[in-house]
Specification:
The protein has 250 residues and is an alpha/beta fold. The chain contains 12 helices and 8 strands. The chain has a single domain, classed as Aldolase class I (TIM Barrel, Alpha-Beta Barrel). Helices cover 44% and strands 14% of the residues.
Amino acid sequence: MKKLYLIGNFKMNMNLSELRPYLKSYKKVAKRAANSTGICVPYVYLDYVSRALKGSRAIYGVQDMYYQDHGAYTGEISPSMLQDYDTKLVIIGHSERRAMFGDTDEIVNKKLTTALKYGFTPILCFGETLEEREAGKVTAVIKKQLTKALAGLTKADGGKIFFAYEPIWAIGTGVVPTTEQLSKVVKQIRSIITKILDTTDDEIKLLYGGSLKPSNAKQILAINGVNGGLIGGACLKMEDFKSIIYENVE
Ligand code: 13P
């Protein structure tokens, strides 16, 4: 079995009364998944999650981060604040942030560079819209997003990043790419990244995200070049998340 990373993205979901029993179960589930599962939670629960998961094998993190250390940035959260809670994962450039909260490729690059500087494991999200796919622009869109996001980074940085291919049309829709579609794009993504960072294919950790659930996880995660999943909706239901983890990690 290849090593797979299964990371949950809570998005803006869960409150404390839901989180309590969730974390209790998750701690047990994570025992089976030696350091290869994690959750990215809303900032306000970071302290709670860091305490609850202490001593567990699960890693945790957040869904965004600002690229300045401190200052007059009302509403933002800085990398040094995240360090106070032993944060490991930081999602950068999720399509929802790009579409709704103004995260441009340039901002994504600044956040990614900063996350690496502070020693986090960034999860860099990218992917095309349905219109872009239908117009035959998948490779061009991904190449542009990756080139801009990775500007100024090195080969060594590449090995510290989780690359998360999330086709926007698959997020929250129940629709997933076919094995052929995904295999093709995975090869392209890997080739683009190796060229930009002058790195080797085996250094790249590539996750897939978009409607990943118990019924399709096995098939998607088995695809050559896919090293795991970034899971939205299905990570909120412990039964679903657990089943994806138990069936796919050693
Ligand atoms: P869904 O699994 O709900 O489609 O969300 C995927 C995602 O956006 C993870 O970051």
